[in-house]
Sequence to fold (522 residues):
Amino acid sequence: MSVQIIINGLALGAVYALIATGFSIIFNVLKFSNFSHGALMTLSAFIGYFVSVGTGLSLFPVILISMLAGGLIDLAGEFVAFRKLTIRNTSSIYYFVSSITLGTLFEGIVTIWVGPNFYNYPRFFKSMVVKFGSLIVSTSDLIMFITSFAILMILMFFIQKTRLGRALRAVSYDRDTASLMGINVYATIQMAFFISGCLAGLAGVFLGINYTLYPQLGNLVVKGFIASVIGGLGSIFGAVVGAILLGLMETLLINFIGSGYAPVFSFLIMLVFLLVRPRGIAGSNVQEKA
Amino acid sequence: MLSVKNLSASYGHIEALKDVSIEAEKGQIVSIIGSNGAGKTTLLRCISGLIKPTSGTIEFLGEPIPNKPHKVVKKGIIHVPEGRRTFSGLTVKDNLLIGGYLFKGKELEDSLQRNYKLFPILNERKSQFAGTLSGGEQQMLAIARGLMSKPKLMLLDEPSLGLAPIIVNQIFDLIKRIRDTGITILLVEQNARKALSICDKAYVLENGRITLKGTGCELLNSDKVKKAYLGS
Fold:
């Protein structure tokens, strides 16, 4: 029983990690919390849904289509909502307002398109559970955990070890100096939005499978936000750790005190972190030396 | 090699550069001296594409320079900014690799090894965060990071700023050594005595205008420079 709860929590945490990472990448590059991220998750999850209903494709092609849709829509969103602000180097409050507006737009599109109804993804798996000896794990949990983990690993490798990943980190630290090193800053920002959008698409599909699909599904982005606060805003590694912790904690709380009160504790824990350790778990300590 | 003609630039209504013309030939060290706010940094930022001049031309190797900073780097101009601006939360090695952003694979690795040889201290500290280096080491890192792009022209903005005299001497020796490898250097400095003693040619920038030019020796002996910048 308890092992199953933990696996459950890990799967949920892995999906939160996808949200938190998508959030963190943009926070790193442009120093604002992208509140359109949630609505983008919904929008790309619905695109995946209608593709899967229309074509009968299996889970992984649907995931791929949703990720691609999320990435491309986020690219368009960057161009419409944030590019001018970046060129003019405005303060982050304008990004903030712009991202809320963009999120409202996405949510509006979804509501007009599908109405206020609830939708269910088709059943992607032949059997609902996988048995390991006496251990029974739900197939969707297992696939969610493995896929998210693999994608996050690839992303970490990309950011830490590749040329474009280094460019992304350089632009996150100091845009002007990065451009003096020959890095095309705007192309790098576009790349960040594309990656973030792909993560939103993936997270959207998984949330849709885990719960149901409805126009306000994106509100779950709050979980990703809490995870990044716990982990340390701006740190991708911290976001992943925070998300896994949050997922585990929620699942345990739901089991012990019921699903009514569990969200209350999530917010309480975030508030405690903001009071006691606002830098989060991984909050960086490196200081600029004059 | 570098030819700046009648360059003007402004921030809003404040004119920072007025009709500035300078020339640099291959293999020279050209110094620009002047006090705070004279427009030295603005001049460098115009050349590297961070600021658009309001009028005038900048030609490099006979061609006008591109209008985006990352394209300017591709042409072989690297700008080592004032205050070093190393990526403090990244490792020394990552800082250098970002400096070599234009290259990939073996070419990048070769460039990295060459700079480790030139700066053994950076090799020793390659996995340290750049923000934990001392001021002098950070300046070396900033210069090494610039060299990673294999530039033809290096723009150095106040490399001696805030450093102990003995380190300043090391940095100026280093600048001469870089010049000896064939890289042209445009040096902006407040430390006028040092900057004039190593340069082939120098300009004095005052309130956005070039008021004097000559060889380093000439300016060192000029009464006006002595009075205003050398304190004697």
